[in-house]
Amino acid sequence: MKTYSPISIQLLGLLVVLWSTSAAAKIPLCVSVAGFGSQSMQDYHRAVQTEIRRHPEHTPVESNCARTLHVEYLNLKPHAAVTGYLDGQVPSRVNVKKETELNQAISTLVAQILKSDPAAWIRNPENYLERVLISDAGLKRGVMLFGLEAFQHMARTGDGVSFLPGIALRIRRGLGPVHVGARAAVAYLPQNSMPGSNPKMQLLASLEPEVAWFATENKSSSFYLAGSLGLTVLRMNGYNDGQETLTDVGISLGVRAGIELLRISDYRVDLFVQGHLPLFVTDSTESDIVDAYTPGIQIGAGIAF
Questions:
Q1: Do 107 and 113 touch, CB atoms closer than 8 A?
Q2: How many Å separate Cα 133 from the centre of its chain?
Q3: What is the pLDDT of residues 90-118, one digit of tens each?
Q4: What is the DSSP string of 39-92?
Q5: CATH number assigned to the domain with residue range 143-304, chosen from the 4 options 1.20.1560.10, 3.40.190.150, 2.40.160.20, 2.40.50.1020
């Protein structure tokens, strides 16, 4: 059995005491506020101190502090934000839409800064490991986007072209440069063919799962390519001895190219061109007004949030 010398036991005991004392002690922080106006400065100074007390690793003090927490209100109308940082660290920012949200913004800001303080992580290594595992450094998180689009659909019908305005709902989830989602689109125009004219497309409805690839992952704008495969409903109008309609359902392929703008904001703008390629011949046993492929192209713009 291995034995330990009294000196080793004393050193071990000293390390335990030092570790316990370090873990138990709170980090003293001074507070500096700016930009709130001379009459409100003391109130917001106290508000920041109150928020610090909600975090067990830190405590607000007036002097003999380890570091200073700086908080500033920037009101650059029509935009406003509170920014803050600890000495030697990168600033954080929380946007403020109206002054009634200022207290909540300060609470969010202080929480962001103190929870990312390396000094607090060292004092509590278990919390540090937990935060690393749930942060982007340990686990990449996707982004969920909902989009609304308006487009013009142009389809070949006979020897001519039909034009239909349309709208679409797009839902997608992105992880890095790859986005996976679905798009539901409807284009409609109640147009009728005249005697001797080409048939007209009245309706296009589609539901298509899609996959998209973005060329630049972390830029404010990015070119992208997307492909989809889904279900399409087509309705045509033609003239034989009188007005006739034809409805057909089948599988279609979509090929899309576009550019997404304002990707760092809450609302993204999407400009796109999408080819619509039915994998079936548009025809019917009830009418012979159309018996051909009816590919089309869509040009439009959308917003994602």
A1: no
A2: 21
A3: 899 999 888 788 889 999 999 999 888 87
A4: TTHHHHHHHHHHHHHTSTTEEE-SSS-SEEEEEEEEEETTEEEEEEEETTS--E
A5: 2.40.160.20
Q: Is 282 exposed, middle or buried (0-12, 13-18, 19+ CB in 10 A)?
A: buried
**Tens-digit pLDDT profile for residues 247-257:** 899 999 999 99
C-beta separation of 69 from 30 below 8 A: yes
Nearest residue to 301 via CA among 258, 245, 264: 258
DSSP 8-state assignment for residue 99? G
Q: What is the pLDDT of residues 216-239, one digit of tens each?
A: 877 889 999 999 999 999 998 887
Cβ neighbours around 270 below 10 Å, total: 21
Q: Are 188 and 210 in contact (CB under 8 A)?
A: no
Higher pLDDT, 75 or 271: 271
By residue count, the chain amounts to 305
Topology of domain 19-134 in CATH is Double Stranded RNA Binding Domain (3.30.160)
pTM of the model: 0.55
pLDDT, tens digit, 9 for 90 and up, residues 260-289: 999 888 899 999 999 999 999 888 767 778
**Within the chain, where are the H helices?**
6-24, 41-53, 102-115, 118-123, 125-134
- State residue 221 phi and psi, 5-degree precision: -140, 150
**pLDDT tens-digit map of 30-60:** 999 998 877 678 888 899 999 999 888 889 9
Q: Three-state SS for 230?
A: strand
- Adjacent-strand bridge partners of 79: 76
